[in-house]
Amino acid sequence: MSTAVLALVAAIPILLALVLMVGLRWPATRAMPLAWLTAVLGAILVWRLPVGYAAALSIQGIITAIGILIIVFGAILILRTLQQSGGMETIQYGMQNITPDRRIQAIIIGYMFAAFIEGAAGFGTPAALAAPLLLSLGFPPLAAAVICLVFNSFPVTFGAVGTPIILGLKFLQPLVGEAAQAGIPGLNFSNMGEFNMVVGQWASLMHTLMIFILPIFMLGFITRFFGPARSWRDGLKAWKFCMFAATAFTVPYLLFAWLVGPEFPSLIGGLIGLGVIIAGAKAGFCMPAEPWDFGPHQKWEKAWTGDVSYDGQTTFKPHMSQFKAWLPYILIGLILVVTRIPEFGLKGFLAAQKLAFNHILGFDSVSASIAYLYLPGTIPFTLVALLTIFIHGMPGEKVKVAWKQSIATMKNPTIALFAAVALVSVFRGSGISDALLNPHAYPSMPLAMAKAVAGIAGNAWPLFASFVGGLGSFITGSNTVSDLLFAEFQWGVAAQLDLPRQIIVAAQATGGAMGNMVCIHNIVAACAVVGLSGMEGQILKKPCGRSCFTASSSGSWPC
User: Which burial class, exposed, middle or buried, applies to 189 when counting CB atoms under 10 A from its CB (0-12, 13-18, 19+)?
Assistant: First the structure.
């Protein structure tokens, strides 16, 4: 069978997910299981893989997904624990009293605080925290949603302590090893950790320019479409503070990406940057001459608030000191540093503690493992959540509520991730070099697509590589799943065209962050937390390939 036909069959599950989730607006809980089933049928009917082998690959994917879900659960648990302890409201109270200038509040909360939350937790938590905080400070709900969605882009590549790279690229490990053994120039990595670090280094450079441009553009956009004077100039007047904030984030971001690894750039960049710009704002450093506001909420357009009765009167109260409220996040940062830097001696021990699943369903080539202590969902997220009970003096009833809410929240991510990662496992396992399992010796599904695309795009592929990553996160709602889905495809195209694999894979990881800002899941989540459910189409109403933001005939709508 020709490569073109194989590529078409391999593309059907992805195209199906795209049609169902984007065209028909199906949730991932319905669309991804159907996409997985389509991939299994293609593997059995076209690749002629045994049914048992396809089942084993699916189980392998589910086990891998459990590792991701442990991270998701830990991130949600620390969030719910802080909400129940009063720590989150105390943090929000502190944010509320830094400056009355809405532009500066947008940078501190939507840009920097959200970057830190993305680095620590990922998986949609920045919108869940930052958007309601902006709303409570007096932002129109639609403006709060747009700010949080767009700013949650460049930190995403390193979100949830590097999960999109560390777990998202895990299936490249044998390819990296083969390239090193073959002596391919530039690919002499002794282990996967070295490769991940180089990918993170390139990705951080690719993001750097946008880290400086995006805050200036967004402030101009907000004042143009939501300000009383409808002027870009009002937002651009805060350009000095934007440059200050971007520098405060970028310096630790690049240092940790280049010197430590992909776990820390967004988390430490956001944490250090947040402290620096809050101190700067309080001292009046680089602040605009005049504060800016959206004007009286009675004059806001109805579309900015939807059907929600909004009076802008919501306030927060402190329940403890700011230090105690921030202490869980400080502990998360410290524990991550201690457990991820080899010189401290804990990284190797924790990474070695694995729950192994070998020879799944009797197939020697199919195995999986869960490094249950090394996953950030256990240490530090769940560990710190438990410590927070004592640090914040939480009563048992509130602890029970936090755990109950966290477990309940896991239903939909579990269904979607099980199906999505099982699909990825079938994809990559379809090209096994075993005459009994792959009788026609067909290339794997990703490699078949890579060969077809390489023949069409040629050496122009670097121009398109990031858009594939963006498409993956746009469809699945996760940069991690996008990397799991397309990393081997990107490697295959780079190999076919003799392009530097690590740079193309970095473009994949960077593109995933781009797609994250407009992915349907995040838009739905952001609209839900600010009371705009049902208005998602007003945010995602124009083709993003033409422009990330456009104006309609009324002159007031974000795309």
Answer: middle
In 431-519, where does DSSP find H-type helix? 445-457, 465-476, 479-497, 501-516
CB atoms within 10 A of CB 89: 19
Structure tokens at 169: 């690229």
Name the amino acid, one letter, at 44. Answer: I
Q: Count how many Cα atoms sit within 13 Å of the Cα of residue 194 in the half-sphere of its side chain.
A: 9
CA distance 376 to 15: 33
Q: How many angstroms separate the CA atoms of 188 and 400, rounded?
A: 50
For 390-425, what is each residue's pLDDT tens digit? Answer: 999 999 999 999 999 888 878 777 887 788 888 888
Taking phi over 0 as left and psi of -120 to 50 as alpha, with beta for the rest, 63 belongs to alpha
pTM of the model: 0.73
Instruction: Please count the residues of the chain.
Output: 559
439 and 48 Cβ atoms separated by less than 8 Å: yes
> What is the spatial distance between Cα 143 and Cα 457, in angstroms, rounded to a whole number?
39
Q: In whole angstroms, what separates CA 475 from the centre of its chain? A: 13
Angle between helices 239-259 and 265-283 (to 10 degrees): 150
Label residue 310 exposed, middle or buried (CB < 10 Å: 0-12, 13-18, 19+).
middle
